[in-house]
Recover the amino acids of this structure.
């Protein structure tokens, strides 16, 4: 295992950034010990923003890179990085968080939930949660995981009125795991599968038959377990989607059908061109103009929140190439079962798309090893915020539900059960 000085520094700083993510809650608490709006209060508050963590450490890394190897080498490295995913998540998160798109999503889910309630006589609020946490993540296989995360998280956010610490961590853990595995029905929507599908010739039939149906079963089981465990808290702390619609109807202008259709058309255009940055950013810029002229039917666009999520992912990408020196040999030396387990664990500290990409660079992997790597990567996608790219978007939307910020260790513990379900389904079925 050989490495250069800059690779070693990149790995060390990446490790420190990961440790930093587990300390954001404590750092935010420290910021309250200083006068509000003071220099130290603002500085510690910045360090306590989880979306800023990797960007801060990436900036430090680039400063060291420039000082050691010069401006030209650093800029050459920077120009060769692929930032399509952060830009895409920024665009899709803004579009999916608009009132017309969210309203269309709620009405679709409400229609299906109402049918289930009539047939099986199930409680309205629990049925709504059940359908949201199943159809939302599974739709990620077609509209992409970031879009599914944004819409699903906003629906949950509108339904949650009163929540306990255990409930909100359990809910976000199931959301993260379900999104990570819910995009595995197709070869183009889940980033960990997309990274390898072309190189390994995985088509729709292969992905569906090897990953899709197993992931769908895990999504249903995770959702059912969540509702069984938190049945009382969900019944008392949530309102139904119909009540959400009623409340919004009383305070917002009715959205004309053509406005909704235009928004869905823009959403479709961005999804279809997801792998072509210039194309989807051009569509997005045009969308901003449409949003301006339909302002009556809009809430404030979530530009700041979406940019923070993009910055978070950009920081991770900045470090990605410098993990290859230790990660690729490690993956290449494992047996199938160990590779599967290792991928689940490594995903918690390395974005799962980056993990499968690096694995695809290892020559001579058997078909069973390829499956083990990708299955482990998507199974572990809910363990931490950095484990799966869309997690940052979900947390950004639900962050106000976590007083003092999310505690990564609490998320890790809460995600163990749904992750175990995903592991069992993907490995034993």
């Amino acid at each position: 295992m050989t490495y250069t000085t800059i690779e070693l520094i990149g790995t060390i700083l990446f490790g420190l950034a990961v440790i930093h993510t587990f300390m954001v809650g404590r750092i935010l608490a420290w910021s309250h010990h200083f006068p509000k709006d003071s220099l130290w209060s603002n500085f510690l508050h910045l360090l306590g923003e989880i979306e800023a963590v990797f960007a801060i450490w990436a900036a430090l890394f680039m400063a060291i890179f420039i000082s050691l190897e010069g401006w030209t080498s650093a800029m050459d490295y920077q120009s060769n990085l692929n930032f399509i995913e952060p830009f895409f998540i920024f665009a899709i998160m803004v579009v999916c968080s608009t009132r017309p798109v969210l309203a269309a999503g709620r009405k679709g889910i409400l229609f299906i939930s109402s049918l289930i309630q009539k047939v099986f006589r199930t409680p309205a609020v629990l049925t709504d949660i059940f359908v949201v946490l199943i159809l939302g993540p599974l739709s990620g296989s077609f509209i992409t995981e970031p879009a599914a995360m944004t819409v699903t998280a906003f629906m949950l956010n509108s339904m949650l009125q009163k929540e306990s610490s255990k409930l909100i961590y359990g809910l976000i853990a199931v959301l993260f795991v379900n999104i990570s595995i819910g995009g595995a029905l197709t070869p183009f929507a889940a980033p960990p599968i997309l990274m390898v599908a072309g190189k390994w010739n995985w088509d729709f039939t292969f992905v569906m038959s090897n990953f899709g149906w197993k992931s769908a079963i895990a999504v249903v089981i995770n959702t059912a377990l969540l509702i069984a465990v938190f049945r009382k808290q969900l019944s008392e702390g949530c309102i139904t989607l119909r009540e959400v619609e009623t409340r919004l109807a009383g305070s917002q202008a009715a959205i004309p059908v053509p406005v909704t259709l235009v928004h869905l058309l823009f959403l479709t255009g961005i999804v279809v061109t997801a792998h072509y940055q210039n194309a989807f950013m051009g569509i997005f810029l045009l969308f901003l103009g449409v949003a301006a002229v339909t302002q009556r039917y809009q809430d404030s666009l979530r530009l700041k929140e979406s940019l923070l999520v993009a910055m978070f992912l950009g920081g991770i990408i900045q470090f990605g190439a410098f993990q290859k020196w230790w990660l690729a040999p490690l993956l290449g030396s494992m047996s199938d079962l160990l590779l599967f387990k290792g991928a689940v664990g490594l995903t918690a500290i390395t974005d799962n798309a980056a993990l499968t990409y690096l694995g695809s660079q290892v020559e001579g992997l058997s078909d069973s090893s390829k499956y083990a790597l990708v299955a482990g990567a998507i199974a572990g996608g809910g363990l931490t915020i950095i484990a799966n790219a869309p997690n940052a978007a979900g947390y950004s939307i639900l962050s106000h539900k976590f007083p003092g910020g999310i505690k990564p260790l609490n998320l890790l513990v809460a995600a163990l059960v749904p992750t175990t379900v995903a592991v069992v389904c993907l490995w034993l079925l």
Q: What stands out?
A: The first helix runs from residue 5 to 21. The radius of gyration is 21 Å. DSSP finds 23 helices and no strands in the chain.
